[in-house]
Structure formats: structure tokens, C-alpha cells
Amino acid sequence: MRKRKVISMMLGCTLLFGTMGCGGSFLSPDNKAGDSPSAKDERTLPFQQESLDKLPSKVKEQWAEVRSTKAEEGIQAKVEDNGRIYLFLASGEKNTGGWSIKVKEVTQQGKEVHVNAEEVPPKKDSINTQAVTSPLTVISIKTDDDLKYKTHIEEVKSKDSQDGKESMPPKDADTQGKILSKQVESGKTLPENVKDKLSDMRSSKKGGHVMVNHRDHTYLIIGLGERRTSGYRINIENVIEKDGKIHVYAQEISPNPDGMVAQMITHPTQVISIPRVEKDKEIEYHIKKQSTKDQPNR
Question: In the UniProt record, does the keyword Mitochondrion occur (predicted)?
């Protein structure tokens, strides 16, 4: 009898561990093999790059404190005020003045927020302070406070150092024409007619671009088309009105060759809004591919 009980217990254990597997791991119904939740849930967050004179008093106090300390590269402080999160970004010490930080995109993957930015060097032949400086900028986003924040700051060569090669999308100070203000938009806050066009773009194999007017704004949607992995994104650098046309300068950013990406079909898109322009206005898109050798190892 005792022997029979032992055999029964061994059989029960065999069935139990056979069901669970050797590692005891468990995949929920929403996390099937081949899916990557972090890549699947990635979304672009609208953000505002702030000017010092418009900061709330609480945030200004933090600004003064950060400026008085030696700032390393990355996020130096985070302040919540009136439903918005203010992030202080620094790019480390520089030997002269004239450096600045330009935030290109803010994305959220699960509980992590990634701030993609570039440090812009002084223009060649410009007159700058010959002293150690620490470039600092502040952005604000409307999101939950219970998140982790990471920065990816890319070093960009000055325009004069490109030696006649294809130029990067122009910076504000390097271009002629009227620079139009732009706002990176989130899919959840878009008007319904813009959401419909964005949905179409996200299922397009070839990608492209489309313009949608709604009230006082014009929404510009850019799609890269079908890509075989995650990690691709679009950075819209500038929107310029020149020679009777609207010029949109953007970059297609490829995944870092040393990074981990999900093996899944994606359709990278980006949406921005600008002050309303009429539909008969000609829009030219200048989209440059960034080679993998230019990817920052940060």
C-alpha cells in the first residue's frame, strides 16, 4: 500500500512538471511566443521644449539648482507641476559656449520613457565664450509620474564639417526661409480624420506622406512603409516655408546594429502638426537615411 502511494505521487509530479516545463516559465495569453510587448506598445509622446522665462516658479527653482552643480550627461532632475513632468537634460561639460541640446522625439515603451536628442555644436567661425559650460535644456510631457526615464543623446557634426557631402536636415540658424513651428503628436490625441489617415499609413507596405487639415492646424503624416524588425523611427528636424513651398526635412533612423530588436513586421510612422496651410500649397519631403555607422553607441 505504501509502495503504491509513492508511485502515485511520482506520477503526479511527472504530470505537473511536464505541464509547466523545465524552467517553470509561463506565457500569458497576451504574450505569445514571437511577440515583443515593449516593441508592440511603443508610442510617441507629444512634448514641449521649454524656454526659461515661461517655466513655472517651482521648475525655475530646480533650474537654478541644477545650473549651480556639475551636470553629467543625461537627465539631471524631474519635476511634476500642474499635471506635467518637466525633465532637465544635460550633455556634459564643454570647453566653450555655443553648444545646445535639441530634443527630437520622446517615446514610451511600457514603463520606460526614452528621450532622443542631439547635442548641436557651435557654428564654425562663431564667437563663443572661452570657458567650461554645461548645455542644459528642459522639456515637458504629460504622462504618469511612475515611469523610468532614459536619454539617448547623439553628437552631431557641424554643417561646415560635412565637406560637401549630402547635408543633414538644416538647423534653425543655418537655413533661409520661414521656419514653421511644429508639434510632435500622439495618436491618442489626434482628431478622428487624422487618426483614420494614420491608420491607413500604418498598414501601407510602401509608406509615403499625407497632409490633413483640421481647424487651425495642418497635420503631416510620414510613413516609412514595411520594415522587418522594430527599432526604426522617423525624426522630423525642420519644417520651412521657402520659395512658395513647404519643405519638410526628416531622417529615417535605423536600429543600432548592436541593439536588440523584435523580429516582427513594423510600419514606422510620425505625425506632426503645423499652423494651417491650404491644400493647394506644395509640400516637399526631404527624407534622408541615417547609415548604421552613424548610430550612437549610447
Answer: no
**Whether residue 126 sits in one domain with residue 83:** yes
Are both 157 and 272 inside the same structural domain? no
Residues 117 and 235 in one domain: no
Quick one: 154 and 41 in the same domain? yes
Q: What is the DSSP string of the chain?
A: -HHHHHHHHHHHHHHHHHHH-TT-----TTS-TT--HHHHT-EEPPEEE--GGGS-HHHHHHHHHHHTS-PPSEEEEEEEETTEEEEEEE---BSSS--EEEEEEEEEETTEEEEEEEEEPPPTT-----S-B--EEEEEE-S-SS-EEEEEEEE---GGGGTTSPPPSPPGGG--SEEPP-EE--GGGS-HHHHHHHHHHTT-SS-EEEEEEETTEEEEEEE---BSSS--EEEEEEEEEETTEEEEEEEEEPPPTTS----S-B--EEEEEEE---TTS-EEEEEEEEPGGG----
pLDDT at 172: 43
The answer to whether position 136 is within a domain reads yes
Confidence (pLDDT) at 247: 94
Residue 216 lies in a domain: yes
Range of the domain at 268: 175-292
Q: What is the pLDDT of residue 229?
A: 87
Domain boundary among 102, 130, 161: 161
- For the chain, residues with pLDDT lower than 70 are 1-41, 70-71, 125-131, 145, 156-176, 258-259, 290-298
- d(CA 263, CA 230) in angstroms, rounded, equals 7
Say what the pTM is: 0.46
Report the domain count for the chain: 2
Residues 52 and 93 in one domain: yes
